[in-house]
Specification:
Structural class: mainly alpha
Order of helices and strands: HHHHH
Oligomer: single chain
Largest sheet: none
Helix content: over 70%
Number of domains: 1
Strand content: under 5%
Length: 123
C-alpha cells in the first residue's frame, strides 16, 4: 500500500483538476485544456517513476520538479499572452502556449508523486 499511495494521490489530484477544468481556469486554451492535462499527467507520473531510480537524495528531484513546474507555468503564460497579442498569427507563441500546458501538468504531477513517495518513505 505504501508504494501505491503516491500514485493514488497523484491520480486523485489529477481527477480533481480534470473535474474542475483547472487548466482552463489558469489560462490554457478551453478546447485543449483537458487533453493537455491527460497527456501531461501521464507523462509526469511516468517521469517521476523513472526518476525514482536515479541515485541521490529525493530532495534534488523534488527541487528539480519544483523549478521545472514554475518554468513551464511561466512559459505557458507567456506563450498564451504573446499568442493573444498577435491575434493568433504568432505560431511559435501558440506552440509555446500549447506545449507549456502539457509540460506544466507533467512537472506538477511528477512533483506531487515524488514528494509523496519521499514522505511515505520517511514513515
Amino acid at each position: 500500500m505504501r508504494q501505491a499511495l503516491p500514485l493514488l494521490l497523484t491520480l486523485l489530484v489529477a481527477a480533481l483538476a480534470y473535474a474542475t477544468n483547472a487548466p482552463a481556469q489558469f489560462g490554457a486554451h478551453p478546447q485543449w485544456a483537458l487533453t493537455n492535462l491527460l497527456i501531461g499527467g501521464a507523462l509526469g507520473i511516468a517521469t517521476a517513476f523513472a526518476a525514482g531510480f536515479l541515485p541521490g537524495p529525493a530532495f534534488f528531484r523534488i527541487l528539480g520538479f519544483t523549478v521545472l513546474s514554475g518554468f513551464f507555468i511561466w512559459a505557458a503564460q507567456v506563450g498564451g499572452r504573446e499568442f493573444a497579442a498577435s491575434y493568433g498569427d504568432d505560431a511559435q507563441a501558440g506552440q509555446l502556449w500549447y506545449l507549456g500546458w502539457i509540460a506544466a501538468p507533467a512537472a506538477l504531477a511528477a512533483l506531487l508523486y515524488t514528494a509523496t513517495a519521499w514522505l511515505v518513505s520517511q514513515r
